[in-house]
Amino acid sequence: MAKKILIVDGNAILHRAFHALPPLTDNQGRLINAVYGFFTILLKAIAELKVERLAICFDSSAPTFRHKVFAAYKAHRVEKPELYAQLPILAQLLKALKVPVFAADGYEADDLVGTIAKQAQQEQLSSIILTGDLDTLQLVGPDSKVYVMRTGVSKAVMYDRQEIFKKYGLASSQMVDFKSLIGDPSDNIPGAKNIGPKTAAGLLKKFKTLKCIYQNLAKIAPSVAENLKVSQQQVLLAKKLVTIDADAPIQLALSKAKIASLDFKAVRAQMLSLGLKTLASRLPVKQAGQESQMNLL
């Protein structure tokens, strides 16, 4: 059985945790619910998924290549200062843990996740991507799965190729074209006019690819074909925006990603200094002659 690496979409998990948990504060009175939830999700995933390596990816504050081709990309999003104020605390704890953390100007966390998954495959590692949304389903393959948090900080769905087909009737390789057709309102990405998930899936089941759909407009119902025709440019733009760049300028050092090498003692001390006793108690503990064990109670 191939060894596994857990690749975390840090921003997605932080946002999921922030919205899932009520306000919590540390012993200095700082809001810390997102940090608390982030580590709750992370530690649970490490224990349940039996992974041997770990890497965490974050967005950069700099504009990405997507903003350069579409100025309105994510323009409608409202910043949440009470969430972003927790980033320094999370960074402090991750630094103490000595876990590989990646960010790169011009790229989003999803691009870095895809890059690490690609590098892991080249090293005969299988990947599990931990995220809070479905943007990375296009990365699912024989050696990669996507573990999506769905409810709170405890319930999740594991997407492999079979689960994607069960949900959409499509292959993971068709997910980019699927999102290109329907767009993504959460990222302010337009899709084809009046083309929803059901119609998009039906078109891809019949014609397989976006290119073939546009080559066969004469075989499609006139109203749908007309919507596709007038939307072609924004559909092609959407494809550029939703496609993950798995060649970002980062390099994973596998020797530094081993979970067995992480400094849980140091991060436990940091958590205790913040008054996070319950969270600290969930960290792995080594017992004589035994591997690290999780206390998830």
From TrEMBL:
Protein name: 5'-3' exonuclease domain-containing protein
Pfam family, one: 5_3_exonuc
Keyword terms: DNA-binding, Hydrolase, Nuclease
Keyword Hydrolase: yes
GO molecular function: 5'-3' exonuclease activity; 5'-flap endonuclease activity; DNA binding
Coiled-coil regions, chain positions: none
SMART domains xrefs: 53EXOc, HhH2
Residue span(s) of domain 5'-3' exonuclease: 3-260
GO biological process, one term: DNA replication, Okazaki fragment processing
InterPro entries given in the database record: 5-3_exonucl_a-hlix_arch_N, 5-3_exonuclease, 5-3_exonuclease_C_sf, DNA_polI_H3TH, FEN, HhH2, PIN-like_dom_sf
